[in-house]
Amino acid sequence: MGLLDSFEKGLERAVNSAFAKTFRSGLQPVEIASALRSELDKKAAIVTRDRVLAPNSFTVRVSPADAERMDALGSALRTELDEIVRAHAAKQGYSFPGPVSIALRTDPDVATGTLGVDSVMAEGRVDWRAVVEIAGRRHPLERARTVIGRGSDADITIPDPGTSRRHVEVLWDGERAMVRDLGSTNGSKLDGRPVKQAALANGQVITIGRTDIVFRLVPSAAPPQRVPRHEAATELYDFRGGDR
Fold first, then answer.
1. Which of 70, 178, 212, 218 is most buried, most CB within 10 Å of its CB?
2. Which tens digit of pLDDT belongs to each residue from 192-242?
3. What is the DSSP string of the chain?
4. Contact 232/223 with Cβ under 8 angstroms?
């Protein structure tokens, strides 16, 4: 299975049927993935026999109409694009000089159905942030203590009658995370096992009622510093009839 096939399947999982109607015309998400993959291949530079350096900071410029369509996907699209860039780089043996950064920007000079890609090799620092993913939506953990339950007084409210009003809390200090059951009626599980209190690792699943809550650590790149010896590269992709 090719990388773009994998991307399409991943995107299918992230986008519900309501979003599908959005993409009947104009730019398609898979075309952005294709352009980023092409950008990596075109701009990869051999540094030594064992190291091929590739751009890691991308700005994807799209038309206002296409930007509105892409905004419907929220963070799901950016997550998929980040994964496809990393997977392609790993397959090709490319190295990055810093964290991967992909930004989508509205550009009125770009025609509908086309996109522009600006790429640069940039150094930077990776900061990690914690999120919980519920029904495909990510909720950043912006405080040290986040309460989850069906009550309106919970920090994250879920419409699950099998949960308590204040069911569990997730603690995050910027480096470590913990889940704690708040004396719920039906209890909580961590990776399928009953839990009262436990440390959380990336990708673990908390289950309350019929709701799965995935704890994730996601990279948040600090503003990158451009590597002086490499020039920025700009490409314009027209999916209505080839590159231009």
1. 70
2. 999 999 999 999 999 999 999 999 987 665 444 444 433 344 444 444 444
3. --HHHHHHHHHHHHS-HHHHGGGSSS--HHHHHHHHHHHHHHH-EEEETTEEE---EEEEEE-HHHHHHHHTTTHHHHHHHHHHHHHHHHHHTEE-SS--EEEEEE-TTSPTTEEEEEEE-EE--EEEEEEEEETTEEEE--SSEEEEESSTTSSEE---TTS-TT-EEEEE-SS-EEEEE-S-SS-EEETTEEESEEEE-TT-EEEETTEEEEEEEEEEEPPPEE-TTS--EEEEEETTTS--
4. no
What confidence tens digit (pLDDT) does each residue in 17-68 have?
Answer: 334 444 445 788 889 999 999 999 999 988 777 788 899 999 999 999 999 8
d(CA 79, CA 7): 11
Residue 232 and residue 119 in contact, taking contact as beta carbons nearer than 8 Å: yes
Question: Is 132:139 a contact under the CB 8 Å cutoff?
Answer: yes
Question: Do the Cβ atoms of 182 and 164 come closer than 8 Å?
Answer: yes
Report the alpha-carbon distance of residue 16 to residue 55 in Å, rounded: 32
Alpha-carbon span 102 to 97, nearest angstrom: 15
Of 137, 138, 148, 97, the closest CA to residue 119 belongs to 97
User: pTM of this prediction?
Assistant: 0.48
What whole-number distance in Å separates Cα of residue 127 and Cα of residue 138?
A: 17
Amino acid (1-letter code) at residue 195:
V
* Residues in CB range of 204: below 8 A, 6 or more apart: 190, 191, 214, 215
Which of these, 153, 7, 154, 137, lies nearest to 82 by C-alpha position?
7
Q: Which two tokens stand for residue 52?
A: 């091929």
